[in-house]
Amino acid sequence: MTDVSEREIAGVRLRLSSPITLDQEWIGQGEILEQLLACWLVVAKEDLPLSPRITGPPGIGKTTLAMAAARLRKQDLYVFQCTADTRPEDLLVTPVLSEQGKISYHASPLVSAMLTGGICVLDEGNRMNEKSWASLAPLLDHRRQVESIVAGISIHADSAFRTCITMNEDESTYEIPDYILSRLQPTLKLDFPNRDDELAILRYHLPFVEADLLGITVEFLQRSHDLLLDFSPRDGLHILQYAVKRLAQDRTHPLGKDEAWKEAVIKVLGDDALDLESLARQKQRM
After folding, report:
1. Beta sheet of 6-9, edge-to-edge order
2. Which of 113, 181, 190, 230 is close enough to 57 for a disulfide, judged by CB 3.0 to 4.6 Å?
C-alpha cells in the first residue's frame, strides 16, 4: 500500500492522506459488485470510467461493497466522509498553519486518490451541500480535474483514478442538484440481504457467537425487512455484540440468553423494537 507522502504541483507541495487498510469480504449480492466493477472499466482510449452512486438504507454495506471492488482491482482505497458542513477546501486541499507560522497544504482523501491513481468513496454524499458538490463538477465529467482556490492550483486525476458515491435513503439529507446527479451515473441500488447471506454476514463478523443467537437475530432482521423497517445487518451486529457482552459479565446475577438478547434489541433499537408488527403499523401511520 502507498505510504503517506508528498506531491508537488505548480510549486505547491501537498501532503497526501493515507489509504485505508480495511479488508472485509463481500458476502452475497454478487451482481451489484459486478455492476460496480463494470462502471470502472475503460473499454477504449476515448472511453472514461463512470462515477456511480450506490443507494440503500444505512448499515447495509454500501462502503464495504466499494472496498471489495477496490481490493479486486488491486488499488488503494480512500474514503471521504461527507457531512452537512463539508466545505470545498475540505474536499480538496486544506491549508494548515504550523506553530512556526508556516502554511502547509494537506490533500484530502479524494485528491490523494486522484494523484496516486487510487479509488475514493465519497461516503453519504447526499449529506453534502451544493457549494461543495459544485467544486467536484469538473472532476465528474470529461475534464477529470479540480481547482483548489486556497492553493491556487489545478489538480488532474491520474488515469487509474476511480470514484463512487454512497447515499443513504433517509430524510436527513440534501437534494443534490440535477447537474451533479447527471454526472453520478448509473444508480446501483443495494437491497437488504436474503436470509442465508445475512446469516453469513453476521457469522463472518462475529464467529464467536453461538448459532442460536445468530439464528434468532437473522429471523428478527428478516421479519423487519418484510415489514419495510430499516433495521440493517449493522444493527444485527450491534445486538449480538451487546448480548454476548452481557452474557459474559459477572455471573453473580446471570442473564438467560433470551433475556440478554431482548435487552440488546431494546438498547440498540429502542423500546418498541421487540414488537415489529406494531412498529410497522406506527410507521405506516406517519
Report:
1. 6-9, 12-15, 103-107, 93-97
2. 230
